[in-house]
Amino acid sequence: MTVLTNTIHIDATPAQVWEALATLDALHEYDPGIAKSSLCGAKRCGLGADRHCDIEAGGWFRERVTVWEPARALEFTLYDCTLPVRHLRHHYELSAEHGGTRVDQPRVHPRLRTPGSGSRRPRRQTQVGRRGEGLLRWPRAACGGSSRSLALRC
Q1: 145-154: per-residue pLDDT in tens?
Q2: What are 144-149's contacts with CB under 8 Å, separation 24+?
Q3: Which of 66, 105, 116, 126 is the most buried (most CB within 10 A)?
Q4: Residue 106 has what pLDDT?
């Protein structure tokens, strides 16, 4: 198992960041790898809500909300996709920090192995979000502020 964690600081309140994340059909507005996101079914939010995402480079995935704690935590679990990945979950953790919001996004890849990880022991890698890069690109319009990166403390 490998856990990849993106971390970013957003100059907006946790409530503002939550509003952007909890709008499930708006992932394409802040994730540069997503061409379009839409809801699957009538449930717009909360546990069990599903979304379909078309990937910018081709293909798609569907994921379901498995944790819903307003302004604190949100988790998605992949349940169908065109990619060779079959098991994936990622979790957003929000916390007030330095007048804004720190967002940590650990993504668990149960079968992904990193170089040098010959054993099946869990391994942790960290990616730090930067404005305009990675999975956590936050437009000013989404949260009413700018972003800057922070190093993740393990």
Answers
A1: 444 333 322 2
A2: 144/12, 144/16, 145/10, 145/11, 145/12, 145/16, 145/100, 146/11, 147/8, 147/9, 147/10, 147/11, 148/9, 148/11, 149/7, 149/8, 149/9
A3: 105
A4: 83
